[in-house]
């Protein structure tokens, strides 16, 4: 292999497969155009130096964005991060305090318990910050790429803004609009149920003995599904945030999310061994055997039904809000 | 200071490169012939900028390309498409307008200074 071929290879190996051959051929013929017949190695080096670093040349050929999150979404990205991280931290703090209190047996000196709890909290806080950061970045990265693929000139979608757009904004009826507070609330709710899920054995326990009501192994066996659901929920919230108002498409996505949530909840709660074996004697002490089973079943099914009712209402609300006509407040008044 | 000046100059020139390249493509040109034509007119363009630019113009459907394999070495020729020609004419008008405006601005500045 001579220097030219090596150079061309250094450029094209960094490029997508389908453009590789054509660019290689063109580059090769161009470099030869630059040189006289039978050039000396010195001369070849000189010309290659003019073309510069192959990695840099390759990056100029690639046209996908060379950033994670572009200017179009950067502001949204920051806002969501600023909103989510405090919520996550509050939930971590709250759950850790509950865990520390419920787990306090009096055997260890109180100072040591406090220090331990502090260390645990710091660890979880760090963990949650890294997670939040990662997942939100991933969501925005995906949004960025899918938008860039559909319209490569759209470096700034806001550039098509017209003063008339303001009228549309102000005439989005309050009921149709998605307020920042509601997105905030939903994020808080996500953080709370995620916090409860991952700490269930500490939070839901018989207080004085610290016997968990639920079987941690069974509960946490589903964590990948739960994490996916959280990711979907956060993605949906970000979409809501960006959109700012209900549309049919959003309402439809909301229905799908609700179905997934109900399905996963029903699936987990109906696992037969979800209840901690050590907890059952407690229940039978209070109630007799058949009553225990009945009560447990009653709790399970009433919570499922409650959830379904809420989900159905939420789904319908989405469509109802999407249907509200955007009337022009200025001309109608 | 000189670094800043270099980056400002590059920025200033970047926008005009597309126009310079389009102006030379009413007849088919291959990469190196284009470099030479531009250099002859005093327009310095880095080759590492030009070749990717040509492909981008093709992707934007402003130029079309074809391989000529009749000569000793195959060459890729680029030429303005009909659409590219229209865009070029408009861009040229824009440039003439801009440069005139700027000229007046700069001249006005000079007169102010001399007064």
Please tell me about this protein's structure.
The complex is a heterodimer of chains A (333) and B (115). In chain A, 73% of the residues lie in helices and 1% in strands. Mean pLDDT of chain A is 79; it is low at 150-156 and 328-333. In chain A, helix 5 packs across helix 8 and helix 12 runs antiparallel to helix 14 (289-323). Chain A is elongated and about 100 Å long. Chain A has 15 helices and two strands. In chain A, a hairpin with a 4-residue loop joins strand 1 (205-206) and strand 2 (211-212). Chain A has a domain at 3-61. Chain B has four helices and three strands. Chain B is an alpha+beta fold and 115 residues long. Chain B has a single domain (2-114), classed as Arc Repressor Mutant, subunit A. The interface between A and B is medium-sized, with 19 and 18 residues. Chain A: The chain crosses the membrane at residues 83-104, 124-143, 177-198, 218-239, 251-269, 298-316. Chain A: Keywords: Membrane, Transmembrane, Transmembrane helix. Chain A: It holds the Pfam family HAAS. Chain B: It comes from Jeotgalibacillus proteolyticus. Chain B: This is PadR family transcriptional regulator.
């Amino acid at each position: 292999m001579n220097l030219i071929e090596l150079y061309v290879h250094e450029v094209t190996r960094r490029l997508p497969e389908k453009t590789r051959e054509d660019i290689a051929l063109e580059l090769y013929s161009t470099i030869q155009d630059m040189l006289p017949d039978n050039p000396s190695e010195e001369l070849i080096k000189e010309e290659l130096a003019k073309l510069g670093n192959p990695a840099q040349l390759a990056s100029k050929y690639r046209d996908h964005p060379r950033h994670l999150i572009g200017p179009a979404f950067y502001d949204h990205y920051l806002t969501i991060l600023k909103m989510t991280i405090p919520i996550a931290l509050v939930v971590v703090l709250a759950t850790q305090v509950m865990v520390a209190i419920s787990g306090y047996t009096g055997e260890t000196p109180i100072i040591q318990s406090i220090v331990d709890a502090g260390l645990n909290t710091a660890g979880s806080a760090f963990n949650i910050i890294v997670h939040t950061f990662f997942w939100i970045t991933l969501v925005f990265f995906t949004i960025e790429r899918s938008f860039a693929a559909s319209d490569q000139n759209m470096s700034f979608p806001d550039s098509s803004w017209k003063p008339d757009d303001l009228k549309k904004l102000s005439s989005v009826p309050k009921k149709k609009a998605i307020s920042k507070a509601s997105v905030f609330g939903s994020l808080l709710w996500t953080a709370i149920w995620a916090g409860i899920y991952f700490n269930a054995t500490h939070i839901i326990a018989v207080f004085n003995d610290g016997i968990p009501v639920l079987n941690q192994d069974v509960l946490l066996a589903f964590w990948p599904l739960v994490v996916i659901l959280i990711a979907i929920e956060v993605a949906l919230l970000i979409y809501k945030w960006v959109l700012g108002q209900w549309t049919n498409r959003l309402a439809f996505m909301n229905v799908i999310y609700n179905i997934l949530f109900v399905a996963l909840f029903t699936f987990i709660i109906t696992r037969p061994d979800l209840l901690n074996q050590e907890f059952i004697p407690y229940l039978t002490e209070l109630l007799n055997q058949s009553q225990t089973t009945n009560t447990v079943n009653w709790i399970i099914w009433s919570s499922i039904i409650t959830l379904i009712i809420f989900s159905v209402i939420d789904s319908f609300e989405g469509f109802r809000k999407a249907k509200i006509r955007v009337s022009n407040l200025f001309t109608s008044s | 200071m000189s670094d800043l000046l270099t980056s400002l100059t590059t920025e200033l020139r970047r926008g005009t490169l597309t126009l310079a390249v389009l102006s030379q493509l009413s007849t088919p040109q291959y990469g190196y012939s284009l470099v030479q034509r531009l250099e002859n007119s005093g327009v310095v363009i880095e080759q590492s900028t030009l070749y990717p630019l040509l492909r981008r113009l093709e992707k934007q459907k402003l130029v079309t390309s074809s391989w000529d394999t009749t000569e000793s070495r195959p060459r890729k020729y680029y030429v303005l498409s009909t659409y590219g020609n229209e865009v070029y004419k408009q861009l040229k008008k824009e440039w003439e307008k801009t440069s005139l405006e700027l000229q007046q601005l700069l001249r006005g500045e000079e007169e102010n200074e001399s007064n």
